[in-house]
Amino acid sequence: MTKEEISGIMIYYYYVCKKKLWYYLHEIRMEAGNENVELGKLLDTSSYDRDNKHIMINGVINIDFLRGNHVLHEIKKSKSIEEASIMQVKYYLYYLHQREVTNISAKIDYPLLKQSITVELNDEDFPIIENVLTDILDYAASEQTPPKEETAICKKCAYHDLCYI
Ligand code: SF4
């Protein structure tokens, strides 16, 4: 895998749980049929109908929708893992910035909460994101599964059975 192939969901999983990231990087997929994943998809298909949805860039960046061509939006169902969501969206801005697209802003929308937050890419984010990209490449190359991170999200995680049974 190369740095250019790192997707937004990989950044999200990096901040959620390194073991989840490792499973995903090694193509162990358990999301189909998981009720939280299904809820996310339902929200995605039922929200913001008038906007241009699912813009895929270079096969790695999947923007939920664009409003007015200059505001990208990511839809999340809850704020429970907000840092991961923010870093995913900062990565979208970083990815676009690396390709000289800088006249764009970003929001995370929580339709169930009727809230949204603005996400900005700051100078200090660049080295952080570059370190994360290097780490993700290391996880992709490693045959060693990271230890599980036992947190409240495990109960709802699509990989729960792999970690706990
Ligand atoms: S069940 Fe917990 S430890 Fe296992 S992948 Fe999911 S979040 Fe990580």
Automatic annotation (TrEMBL):
Instruction: Using the record's annotation, list all stretches that form the DUF83 domain.
Output: 8-165
Instruction: Write down the Pfam families for this protein, in alphabetical order.
Output: Cas_Cas4
The reply to whether Lipid biosynthesis figures as a keyword in the UniProt entry is no
InterPro entries in the cross-refs: Dna2/Cas4_DUF83 (IPR022765), PDDEXK-like_dom_sf (IPR011604)
Superkingdom field: Bacteria
Q: Keywords for this entry?
A: Hydrolase
Q: Gene3D superfamilies this protein is in? A: 3.90.320.10
* Protein name listed in UniProt: CRISPR-associated protein Cas4
